[in-house]
Specification:
Elements (H helix, E strand, L loop, with lengths): L1 E5 L21 E5 L5 H4 L7 H16 L4 E4 L8 H7 L4 E2 L6 H7 L6 E5 L7 H4 L7 E5 L5 H7 L7 H18 L5 E4 L8 H8 L3 E2 L1 H12 L1
Parallel strand pairs: 1-2, 1-3, 3-4, 5-6, 5-7, 7-8
Helix pairs in contact: 7-8
């Protein structure tokens, strides 16, 4: 069973989002970390130790409740991968960014990866660790857009149609600047509801944390 460590948010989790149970083909467990507000997690700096340990506690609680595969609701938690993995005995995927070495093994060591993120100014080398190099290109959501504003301000409503247009436009911007990108990787789990539109619009493979967790959970049975 998949278990998800959730940030403390209220913005809409539409189908396809990791925080919506209908996104998954089977039962899913959720554990919210009260201290994990958007402004405290979406940062180029290190996560506060109290919040980091709260994530560890949430992972252990999920495993104790029957989770056999654990993920999180925010790709910025890639920096916590080692700490979370060492805290439990089941597989942990803290972020889609953890998939980068795997994707390079599947495709090519010189794979050109376009990372679509919530905030390109805050996503730093620290989040990638040794997985960052010149073949990784990062593009963030437009900060004047509805999706960025809804997430940042934790608003209760979302214009889904407008958000979809912003996500596809973000990908088009990335590809216009770096047309040699081979695949798209969604750092932000809130972009996952629009991955099919991205595949059709960009004619590229699109990878995210949701699909990786589903695959890993099936393989763990």
């Amino acid at each position: 069973m998949i278990g998800i460590i959730m940030l403390n948010t209220r913005f809409p989790r539409i189908e396809g989002d990791i925080g919506n149970p209908s996104t998954f083909p089977g039962p899913v467990l959720y554990e919210r970390v009260d201290q994990a507000l958007i402004g405290k997690v979406i940062s180029s700096g290190p996560l506060h130790e109290d919040i980091s340990m709260a994530f560890v506690g949430a992972a252990r609680k999920l495993e104790g409740s029957g989770a056999t595969t654990i993920g999180t609701s925010c790709g910025f938690l890639a920096s916590e991968q080692s700490k979370l993995q060492s805290a439990v005995s089941c597989p942990v995927l803290s972020s889609s960014l953890v998939l980068i070495p795997f994707l390079k093994r599947l495709f090519s060591p010189t794979l050109r990866i376009g990372v679509l993120t919530f905030d390109a100014d805050q996503l730093s080398v620290r989040h990638f660790g040794e997985n960052f190099n010149n073949n990784v290109v990062v593009q963030g959501l437009p900060k004047a857009g509805t999706l960025y504003r809804t997430i940042l301000n934790d608003e209760a409503t979302l214009d889904i149609s407008q958000a979809k247009g912003e996500v596809t436009s973000m990908a088009q911007t990335l590809l216009s600047q770096t047309p040699d990108v081979n695949i798209l990787l969604l750092e932000c789990t809130n972009l996952s509801p629009f991955k099919q539109e991205l595949r059709e619009e960009c004619q590229l493979p699109v990878f995210d944390l949701v699909d990786a967790l589903i695959w890993l959970d099936k393989a763990s049975l």
